[in-house]
Specification:
Helix content: over 70%
CATH topology of the largest domain: Growth Hormone, Chain: A
Number of helices: 17
Structural class: mainly alpha
Largest sheet: 2 strands, parallel
Radius of gyration: 21 Å
CATH class of the largest domain: Mainly Alpha
Strand content: under 5%
Shape: globular
């Protein structure tokens, strides 16, 4: 398999091998996520257990982040993706043949495990391959194409379900995963830069040494990005819950959610371009302020039009922030030990994604749904302040990226 040099990177030329697997993995996830709870219920699971099984995708991804870093470092990005695709194929087969709840839950957990390996391998490859002036565009496109896949997946899944029943979603995912693995085989290996002066490569640092050396980045920007993940996870819950609260039917709720998602998807490349040209803060701060303001406005909406308006603004805020977690993590990562660093980074951000809905649930139980949504909006404003406080100025970022490129 031919390799590429970082100096030969071309975003358009490598679009299919670099972003195609992420798009198809997103289609796979989007196809099965809406039916996981239904499948669990069909096997006899209670509503609570069905909800837990849906959560196993995120739990699997969280648990596998550090092992994924080791696998990617040990075997390389391309082989890690191929292995993750094969592992996900096994998981999907188990989803199809499972006749008891625990086996189905294990299969769902395996999908989450494969997801962690796959996404970390893609991020590592693109960080190494993309030159500094294209890094944000590469990261935002990576996140954006996955969102596109997640958006397309449910529609394709619905067509398969209509044709062959509930199992159709898993058959679609299985077919797409075969294609994902095949395309991963075509991804070129990256020809890493040799150490300057002919020196031998430094030994890979341990996760513990990375946590000590980069504690400030993890505790400042890492926590801010965890808040972003929490807000995004809550966003998917807030709209349906508030729509139900004000009496909107399921079809109307789905329409609002779909329109919000469509706006979200259209903005990922412009977001990356702005970050590359004007610095990370030019996107992160407006994104958090817009999302915070729209979330704070949702409790004041009382019907279809007002909730749709607030949701569309929320979609704009999330869309212009596409790729910020990946990009900031990439900027903070060291050249030596980058993959394990990103594994730790993903543990922090995935913890935020899992903890956000728990916080929303807790605030709702203690106070009300409206106050729960206000709390999530407050998290967005807090994240905006943290980015404003700790993100380097655009000139400092440009100098740091230039130095890392020439070193």
């Amino acid at each position: 398999m031919p390799s590429i040099s970082p100096d030969e990177f071309n975003l358009r030329r490598l679009a299919l091998p670099a972003f195609g697997p992420s798009l198809m993995f997103g289609v796979c996830e989007g196809a099965i996520l809406p039916v996981l709870a239904l499948s669990a219920r069909a096997l006899g699971a209670s509503s609570a257990v069905a909800g837990l099984i849906v959560a196993l995708v995120g739990m699997g991804s969280l648990l596998a982040n550090l092992p994924a870093a080791w696998l990617t470092t040990r075997f390389g990005e391309r082989r890690a993706m191929v292995g993750a695709s094969a592992f996900a194929l096994l998981a999907l087969v188990l989803c199809l043949v499972a006749r008891v709840v625990w086996l189905f839950g294990l299969a769902v957990l395996m999908v989450g495990l494969a997801r962690a390996v796959f996404m970390l391998a893609r991020q590592t490859f693109l960080i190494e391959a993309a030159p500094a002036h294209l890094r944000a565009r590469a990261m935002s496109t990576l996140g954006g194409v996955h969102r596109v896949g997640m958006f397309i997946g449910p529609f394709l899944g619905a067509a398969f379900i209509h044709a062959i029943g509930l199992a159709g979603a898993y058959w679609l995912a299985l077919i797409v995963m075969v294609a994902t693995g095949a395309l991963s085989l075509l991804v070129p290996d990256l020809e890493l830069r040799a150490p300057a002066g002919g020196e031998s490569a430094a030994p890979a640092p341990t996760a513990l040494s990375l946590m000590r050396a980069h504690a400030r980045s993890f505790l400042t920007l890492g926590v801010a990005c965890a808040l972003v993940s929490a807000i995004r996870a809550c966003r998917q819950i807030v709209i349906p819950l508030w729509a139900d609260h004000i009496g909107l039917d399921a079809a109307t709720t789905s329409l609002i959610y779909g329109l919000m998602g469509s706006v979200d998807m259209l903005l990922f490349y412009p977001a990356g371009k702005v970050m590359d040209q004007h610095g990370r803060l030019a996107v992160t701060l407006p994104s958090m302020l817009i999302m915070g303001a729209s979330l704070l406005a949702i409790p004041f909406t009382g019907g279809y039009a007002s909730l749709l308006a607030a949701s569309m603004v929320l979609g704009v805020g999330n869309g212009i922030g596409s790729g910020i977690v990946l990009t900031i993590g990439a900027d903070a990562s060291p050249e030596v030990g980058r993959t394990p660093f990103l594994g730790i980074w993903r543990v922090i951000t995935d913890t935020g994604g899992g903890g956000g809905p728990l916080l929303l649930s807790g605030l709702t139980a203690v106070a009300s749904l409206a106050w729960g949504i206000v709390g999530v909006g407050g998290m967005a404003l807090l994240a905006g302040w943290m980015f404003w406080r700790w993100l380097p100025a655009p000139r400092a970022q440009a100098a740091a990226r230039s130095q890392s490129t020439t070193s």
